[in-house]
Design brief:
The protein is of the alpha+beta class. It is built from three helices and nine strands. Strands 1, 2, 3, 4, 5, 6, 7, 8 and 9 form a nine-stranded antiparallel sheet that branches. The longest helix has 15 residues, at 53-67. The protein is globular, with a radius of gyration of 15 Å.
Length: 162
């Protein structure tokens, strides 16, 4: 049986940006996303490299904060490459945010934590051996430098909701 997503200590945040990530809570665990709400936003990419990620993150987070829709015990943005030119991002929220449609990602997912530079993503995706995979970039590049680790969680869908 899949568990709900682990909570995060958002106050364990020496950078003032991204909270410290604990890979043991995620690696090789199965999670359900049932009942969770996400905002769907899209970025442009150039051969899978995001071009407007920072701008999108800043605007989306500002809108989430203004609506009082930020979860108090976790942060989660799942990214899925739609093509080499476009990536969809699903940002966890607690309620509706004006100007955005709510989405669900129903089903159970198997999580695997990887550590290293982003240019290894292709290899990591192949290790998942699944077609429906989402990436959770646990920290921004600046925070990854401070923490000394660049963790990425890949979540592969293992069941769909009925």
């Amino acid at each position: 049986m899949a568990a709900t997503l682990p909570s995060m200590d958002l106050s364990d945040n020496p950078t003032g940006c991204c909270p410290r990530f604990h890979p043991d809570l995620w690696d090789n665990h199965d999670f359900t996303l049932e009942g969770l709400r996400f905002l769907k936003v899209t970025t442009k990419s150039f051969f899978f490299v995001p071009l407007d990620m920072g701008k999108m993150m800043t605007k989306t987070q500002k809108d989430i904060d203004a609506a009082g829709a930020k979860p108090q015990d976790r942060y989660l943005m799942l990214s899925k490459d739609v093509s080499p030119w476009k990536t969809d991002h699903y940002v966890l929220v607690t309620k509706e945010v004006p100007g955005y449609a709510l989405q669900t990602l129903s089903g159970d997912f198997h999580a695997k934590v990887f550590e290293g530079p982003y240019n290894q993503m292709g290899t990591w995706y192949k290790q998942m051996a699944a077609k429906d995979v989402y990436a959770f970039f646990t920290t921004c590049p600046q925070c990854a430098k401070v923490y000394g680790k660049n963790y990425v969680v890949l979540l592969a869908r293992i069941t769909s909701a009925a």
